[in-house]
C-alpha cells in the first residue's frame, strides 16, 4: 500500500512537471554528439522519446541518444501508462475482461483500482514491480475521440467511425488525420436492438416501425401492429455512440427525428430493467445488455425476419450490427500497448469476448442445408429477371460447400465497411497460417435487386474480384498454390432482405465466402 | 495397603455381581447374562427434580480470570469448560452445495479465527465456548478449507461437494474495518441468495459475501445485477477499501481478481458509495438459453 502511494505520487509529480515545464527541460544528444535536440518531453514509452521542439513534436529512439535535463525519465523504473477512453459499452465489461486476459497471458497479476464507476486503473505487476498501468475512463464515443485528439487518451473506445467535425478537429489540433492508415480495429461486435418486456405480445416489427416507435412519431402499440396501449420510450443518453448510430442508420434514412418525451438513461442496465418491468415500454439497447427484456425481431415487408443472433451479427446479415472498435492515434504507442492491441485481434481473445457477452469475429461455417429459408425465398422471387437456370447454376455451385461467417459488405460501390475491412485481415491471416490449405474457397458476389439483372450480375462479379485483390494484398506471405481461391457471381439471385428499403438493399450487396 | 484394596474389591465383586455364588447354587443353572446392556431402571416419579436444575444463569467463566489460573489451566491443556484444548476443523457437505464448518478451539474463546477458502478469507470471533459452527457456500467441487487460529495454529480440511457444479456463485471479500456489501438484484424466477460471512472489526479483518444461484434445469434465464455499496466512514474515507472478487459460474473458467476502491475523501463521510459497473452482471441461462 505504501509503495502504491509512493508510485502514485511519483506519477502525479511526473504529470505535473510535464505539464508545467514551459521551458526546454530535456536535451537529447546523439551518441556521437553531432546532433542535439532540446525541447519539452511529451512522453517516454520505454523505447522512444517524444519531444515538443521548435520543429514540432519529434519522436527519437532512446537507444541512439542520451538525455540531459530535469525532464529526463528514470530509464530503469519506466512504467508504461496507457490511457483508454470512450464508450461505456466497451469500458464496462469488454475492456476489463480483455485486460485481465492479456495480463494472465503475459504472466502478470492485475489489481484494479476503482475511483468510481467511470474511472479505473488496472495495475499489471510481475513478481518484482509494476510493468504497466491501464487507465480506463468510461464515457461516450464522442468523449473517446475528443480525448484522443487532445492527447489525453492513447486508445479511444468507439462505436462508430469519426464524424467529419471530429476529423476536422483532429487536423487542426495537429494530432494527425484520424482517417489516415488503418487506425480502427474492430474488437468485437454487438447489435443494436429494440427491446420490450417479456409480457409484450408484439415480437416482430420492421425497421421503419422501429424508427417510428422509438422516435415517438407513433404513440400507440396498435399503430405498429400491437395492442391498443400507449408506447413508453426508453432511450440511451443523448450523446452516446449507440443513440448516434441509431440516428445515423435508422432515423435519418427514414426521415425521422427524436421527439421529446422519452426517458433517457445514463446506464443501459437501468434502461433494460425499466423496460423489462413495463408492458407498455420499448427501449433501445444493445444485444449485450438486454437484461431481462426481450429483443424484437426485425422483419422486412417481403417476409424476411432477422434475429440478432451470433451468426447473423458475425456475417452482418442483421441490419444493425454495431462494431466495437479501438481507435489509435498516429503517434507511436508503448510496446505493451501495441502488444495489447495485437492481443485483441488474436483468436485467443475470441473466447474472452464471447464470455463477456459480445460477439467475436471468429470464422465459423454454416452448412448449405441451413440456407433453406433463403433458397425458398429465392425460388418464390424467381421470374423473368432471375430464371430457373440461374437458380440451378447457383445451387450447383454452392451445394456441396459450407458458408463462412466472413461476409463482405459495401458502403456503396466497391468500398468495404469497417467490419469487412477487418474481415479481409482476418481471412488473410487465416489463409497465411494455412487454415484453408487443400481447400477450395469461392468468393460469391451478390447484388441487390434494384435495376435490371444484367448490370447487377456484372457489379457483383466486380465486388467479388475486389475482395480477391484485397485478400491477396493483405496476405503477402500466403502460398496461394496450396489452396483454390476463385470468384463467382450470382447477381440478385439469393436475396437476404427485402429490396424495398435502403438497409435491405445494403444487406443484399455482399460477397460471401463458400468453402469445400 | 494393596491387600486391603484387593479385599475390598473382592467384597464388592461378590456383593454386587454374584448373589448366586453366595447362596451356594451351582453356576451351571445361572441364567446367561444378557449380551446387551439392560436399560436403566426408570426413576420413580417422586424424585426431587430440583436436584438436577442448574441455578447459575451467569457463566462463571465470563468473569475476569486471574492470569495465573489461566496459565495453570493451559498447562494442563484443559479449557474453561474442562474439555481438552486440542483444536479441530471439520467440514461436512450439506444440501445445496453448502459446507457445514465446525471449528473447535476450546482454549481460545473470543479470539478471532480466519477462515480461508479458494483464495478468499474472512474473520470471525470465536464464541465463549470455543466452538464455532456455520454454513459456507462451497466455491469449488473439491472444497478445501483452512482455519488460522489466533495462536498460529493452521487447520486444514477438505470435502467433495459434487453439487457445487450446479451453482453460480460470485463471492466478494472486503478487507479492513467498515466493509461494504454486495447487492444482487434479480427477477423473482431466478432463485438466488446472498450469504454474509464473518465480521471485520479492524484493519486485519475481512468479511465475505457470496451470491449463490442454482442453475436450474428449467428454461428460466435472466440477468442478476451485481453491484457494490459501502458507507463512507471515518475509517475508510481516506484509505478506501480492498476487495477481492471470485466468480465461479458453470461453463466459465473460475476467476479471481483484486480491487482497491479509492476513498472519496473525508468530506464524503456519511454518504454511500455505489458502484454498479465494477462487478460483471451474472447472466444465467437455463438449458434452452444455451
TrEMBL record, chain A:
Q: Does the keyword Signal apply?
A: yes
Give UniProt keywords alphabetically: Membrane, Signal
Where the record annotates domain OmpA-like, the positions are 396-516
Signal peptide positions (record): 1-23
For this record, the Gene Ontology CC terms, alphabetical, are: membrane
Provide the protein name: Phosphate ABC transporter substrate-binding protein (PhoT family)
This protein's species is: Litoreibacter halocynthiae
Automatic annotation (TrEMBL), chain B:
The source's superkingdom equals Bacteria
- Name under which the protein is recorded: Uncharacterized protein
**Keywords per UniProt:** Signal
Signal peptide start and end residues = 1-22
Amino acid at each position: 500500500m505504501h509503495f502504491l502511494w509512493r508510485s502514485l505520487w511519483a506519477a502525479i509529480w511526473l504529470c505535473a512537471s510535464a505539464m508545467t515545464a514551459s521551458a526546454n527541460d530535456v536535451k537529447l544528444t546523439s551518441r556521437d554528439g553531432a546532433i542535439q535536440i532540446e525541447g519539452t518531453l511529451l512522453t517516454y514509452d520505454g523505447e522512444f522519446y517524444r519531444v515538443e521542439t521548435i520543429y514540432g513534436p519529434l519522436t527519437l529512439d532512446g537507444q541512439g541518444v542520451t538525455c540531459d535535463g530535469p525532464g529526463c525519465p528514470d530509464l530503469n523504473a519506466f512504467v508504461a501508462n496507457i490511457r483508454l477512453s470512450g464508450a461505456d459499452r466497451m469500458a464496462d465489461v469488454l475492456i476489463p475482461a480483455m485486460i485481465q486476459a492479456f495480463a494472465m497471458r503475459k504472466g502478470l497479476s492485475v489489481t484494479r483500482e476503482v475511483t468510481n464507476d467511470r474511472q479505473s486503473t488496472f495495475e499489471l505487476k510481475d513478481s518484482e514491480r509494476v510493468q504497466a498501468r491501464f487507465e480506463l475512463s468510461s464515457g461516450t464515443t464522442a468523449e473517446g475521440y475528443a480525448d484522443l485528439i487532445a492527447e489525453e487518451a492513447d486508445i479511444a473506445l468507439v462505436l462508430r467511425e469519426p464524424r467529419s467535425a471530429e476529423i476536422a478537429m483532429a487536423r487542426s489540433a495537429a494530432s494527425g488525420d484520424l482517417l489516415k492508415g488503418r487506425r480502427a480495429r474492430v474488437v468485437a461486435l454487438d447489435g443494436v436492438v429494440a427491446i420490450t418486456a417479456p409480457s409484450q405480445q408484439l415480437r416482430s416489427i420492421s425497421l421503419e416501425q422501429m424508427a417510428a416507435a422509438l422516435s415517438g412519431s407513433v404513440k400507440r402499440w396498435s399503430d405498429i401492429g400491437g395492442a391498443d396501449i400507449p408506447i413508453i420510450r426508453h432511450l440511451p443518453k443523448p450523446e452516446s455512440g449507440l443513440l448516434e448510430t441509431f440516428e445515423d442508420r435508422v432515423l435519418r434514412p427514414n426521415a425521422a427525428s427524436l421527439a421529446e418525451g422519452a426517458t433517457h438513461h445514463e446506464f443501459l442496465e437501468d434502461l433494460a430493467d425499466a423496460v423489462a418491468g413495463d408492458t407498455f415500454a420499448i427501449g433501445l439497447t444493445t444485444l449485450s445488455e438486454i437484461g431481462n427484456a426481450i429483443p424484437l425481431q426485425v422483419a422486412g415487408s417481403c417476409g424476411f425476419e432477422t434475429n440478432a443472433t451470433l451468426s447473423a451479427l458475425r456475417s452482418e446479415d442483421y441490419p444493425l450490427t454495431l462494431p466495437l472498435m479501438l481507435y489509435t492515434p498516429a503517434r507511436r504507442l508503448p510496446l505493451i500497448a501495441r502488444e495489447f492491441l495485437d492481443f485483441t485481434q488474436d483468436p485467443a481473445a475470441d473466447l474472452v469476448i464471447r464470455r463477456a457477452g459480445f460477439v467475436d469475429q471468429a470464422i465459423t461455417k454454416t452448412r448449405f442445408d441451413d440456407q433453406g429459408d433463403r433458397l425458398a425465398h429465392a425460388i418464390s422471387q424467381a421470374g423473368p429477371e432471375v430464371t430457373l437456370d440461374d437458380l440451378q447454376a447457383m445451387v450447383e455451385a454452392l451445394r456441396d460447400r459450407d458458408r463462412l461467417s466472413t461476409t463482405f459488405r459495401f458502403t456503396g460501390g466497391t468500398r468495404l465497411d469497417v467490419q469487412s475491412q477487418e474481415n479481409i485481415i482476418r481471412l488473410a491471416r487465416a489463409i497465411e497460417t494455412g487454415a484453408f490449405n487443400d481447400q477450395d474457397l469461392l468468393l460469391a458476389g451478390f447484388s441487390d435487386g434494384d435495376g435490371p439483372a444484367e448490370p447487377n450480375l456484372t457489379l457483383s462479379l466486380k465486388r467479388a474480384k475486389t475482395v480477391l485483390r484485397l485478400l491477396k494484398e493483405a496476405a503477402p506471405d500466403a502460398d496461394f498454390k496450396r489452396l483454390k481461391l476463385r470468384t463467382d457471381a450470382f447477381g440478385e439471385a439469393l436475396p437476404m432482405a427485402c429490396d424495398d428499403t435502403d438497409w435491405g438493399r445494403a444487406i443484399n450487396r455482399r460477397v460471401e465466402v463458400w468453402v469445400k | 495397603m494393596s491387600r486391603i484394596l484387593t479385599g475390598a474389591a473382592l467384597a464388592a465383586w461378590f456383593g454386587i455381581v454374584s448373589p448366586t455364588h453366595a447362596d451356594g447354587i451351582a453356576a451351571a443353572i445361572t441364567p446367561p447374562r444378557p449380551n446387551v446392556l439392560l436399560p436403566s431402571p426408570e426413576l420413580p416419579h417422586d424424585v426431587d427434580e430440583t436436584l438436577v436444575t442448574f441455578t447459575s444463569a451467569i457463566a462463571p467463566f465470563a468473569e475476569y480470570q486471574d492470569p495465573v489460573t489461566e496459565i495453570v489451566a493451559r498447562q494442563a491443556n484443559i479449557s474453561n469448560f474442562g474439555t481438552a484444548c486440542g483444536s479441530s476443523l471439520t467440514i461436512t457437505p450439506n444440501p445445496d452445495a453448502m459446507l457445514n464448518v465446525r471449528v473447535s478451539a476450546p482454549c481460545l474463546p473470543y479470539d478471532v479465527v480466519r477462515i480461508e477458502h479458494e483464495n478468499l478469507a474472512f474473520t470471525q470471533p470465536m464464541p465463549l465456548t470455543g466452538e464455532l459452527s456455520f454454513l459456507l457456500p462451497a466455491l469449488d467441487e473439491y472444497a478445501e478449507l483452512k482455519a488460522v487460529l489466533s495462536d498460529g495454529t493452521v487447520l486444514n480440511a477438505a470435502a467433495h461437494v459434487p453439487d457445487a457444479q450446479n451453482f453460480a456463485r460470485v463471492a466478494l471479500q472486503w478487507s479492513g474495518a467498515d466493509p461494504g456489501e454486495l447487492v444482487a438484484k434479480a427477477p423473482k424466477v431466478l432463485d438466488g441468495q446472498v450469504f454474509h460471512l464473518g465480521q471485520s472489526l479492524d484493519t486485519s479483518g475481512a468479511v465475505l459475501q457470496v451470491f449463490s444461484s442454482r442453475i436450474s434445469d428449467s428454461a428460466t434465464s435472466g440477468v442478476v445485477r451485481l453491484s457494490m455499496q459501502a458507507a463512507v466512514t471515518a475509517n475508510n474515507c481516506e484509505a478506501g477499501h480492498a476487495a477481492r472478487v471470485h466468480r465461479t459460474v458453470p461453463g466459465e473458467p473460475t476467476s479471481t481478481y483484486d480491487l482497491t476502491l479509492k476513498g472519496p475523501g473525508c468530506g464524503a463521510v456519511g454518504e454511500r458509495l455505489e458502484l454498479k459497473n465494477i462487478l460483471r452482471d451474472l447472466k444465467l441461462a437455463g438449458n434452452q438459453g444455451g
